[in-house]
Design a protein that fits this description.
The protein is mostly helical and about 90 residues long. It contains four helices and two strands. It has a two-stranded antiparallel ribbon. Helix 1 packs antiparallel against helix 2. The radius of gyration is 21 Å and the shape is flat.
C-alpha cells in the first residue's frame, strides 16, 4: 500500500469520520484524498502495464497483500520451533 503523509490517513477512520459527521467539508476532504490516491495508483499501473510480473506485484501492494514470506516461530523453553508441522503439534499438545 502506498504510504506517505497525504495518503496514510485514507484508512477507515477518515472515511468513517466523513460518514458519521455528516459534514460536507469532511466528505470533500475524504473524496479529495481518495481521488489523489487513485490517480497515484493509476500512474503506477500505467507505467508498468506491459510487465506482468511488476504489474501483479504493484497490484498486490496497492490492495495490501504481502507477498513476502512470513517468518513464524514459537519459543518453547528457550528453543524456537520454526517448522509449521512442529508448531501445529506443539499447539495441539497444549
Amino acid at each position: 500500500m502506498i504510504r506517505n503523509s497525504r495518503t496514510a490517513c485514507l484508512g477507515g477512520t477518515k472515511k468513517e469520520m466523513a460518514q458519521k459527521s455528516g459534514r460536507i467539508t469532511d466528505r470533500q476532504r475524504y473524496c479529495k484524498l481518495r481521488n489523489h490516491v487513485t490517480k497515484l495508483n493509476q500512474k503506477k499501473i500505467k507505467r508498468i502495464k506491459n510487465d506482468g510480473k511488476k504489474l501483479r506485484c504493484t497490484l498486490n501492494n496497492i490492495v495490501g497483500r504481502n507477498t513476502s514470506p512470513q517468518h513464524t516461530f514459537i519459543e518453547c523453553g528457550g528453543t524456537f520451533i520454526r517448522k509449521p508441522k512442529e508448531i501445529a503439534n506443539f499447539l495441539n499438545d497444549l
